[in-house]
């Protein structure tokens, strides 16, 4: 059985972590496949939005510690052996941060450890009522290894992020909504419909403009305001020359819905 499912429905690509019997704990093959599929979706002109979710009752239980402790999974090597080199350029959290296509996490259950970092790395999160974010790292003797220490303080502020990470706290869907970690909480059975509805709303807009906006938001995290507004202006210049810009203006004047082509 494929451990990662990839489906396209018009402009929406859906990636499903598919180890429901292990609560979608991440295996080595899943890591590689997830990065490959994200890169593929980002390069596909027909894809405008990506949805990431899990099969069964959980979103992702983190890295597969059962495989790791048996010596066959991620981090295996025995005797505390560490890899000779560290290259995270193709790791899913890095790829998630670098791609321009918007990514929506549809949290269908628990997202723990690596799974929490993976969810936080998505642009938007929608939670089913049974969803949870579990910062279980310090309870396992590690720290958020896949972006959490960078992402969480930016999402909820330093003090609240410190409280969550240092205590290894688990947040239910309502707490996640209160903190702004998810955009909405919906009935579990309505989760994918709501995620697709939001993805469709995004996909209806000019894809080059959406991708450019994400790129600029990402750059803004490390820029001064003056540097950033200059980069935004440079990003606008090719958009002004695009067919979609002309279509946006025409559709507004003609009082109709635009039909964007991504050109």
Outline the structure in words.
This protein is an alpha/beta fold. The protein folds into two domains: 200 residues, 2-enoyl-CoA Hydratase, Chain A, domain 1 (Alpha-Beta Complex); 47 residues, Lyase 2-enoyl-coa Hydratase, Chain  A, domain 2 (Orthogonal Bundle). The chain contains eleven helices and ten strands. A six-stranded mixed β-sheet has the order 1-2-3-5-7-10, with helices on both faces. Helix 1 links the parallel strand 2 and strand 3. Helix 5 packs across helix 6 and helix 9 runs antiparallel to helix 10.
Q: Strand order, biggest sheet?
A: 1-2-3-5-7-10
The overall average pLDDT, rounded, is 91
CATH architecture grouping of the largest domain: Alpha-Beta Complex
Computed CA radius of gyration, to the nearest angstrom? 19 Å
Net shape: globular
Q: How many H/I helices?
A: 11
Query: Approximately what portion of the residues adopt beta-strand conformation?
Result: 15-25%
Topology readout:
Layout: E1 4-9, E2 12-17, H1 28-43, E3 49-54, E4 58-60, H2 65-70, H3 92-98, E5 103-107, E6 110-112, H4 114-120, E7 124-128, E8 132-134, H5 148-156, H6 158-167, E9 170-172, H7 173-179, E10 184-186, H8 191-203, H9 207-220, H10 225-240, H11 243-253
Parallel strand pairs: 2-3, 3-5, 4-6, 5-7, 6-8, 7-10
Antiparallel strand pairs: 1-2, 8-9
Helix pairs in contact: 5-6, 9-10
List keywords for this structure.
single chain; about 260 residues; alpha/beta; 2-enoyl-CoA Hydratase, Chain A, domain 1; Lyase 2-enoyl-coa Hydratase, Chain  A, domain 2; 2 domains; 6-stranded mixed β-sheet; 4-stranded mixed β-sheet; 11 helices; 10 strands
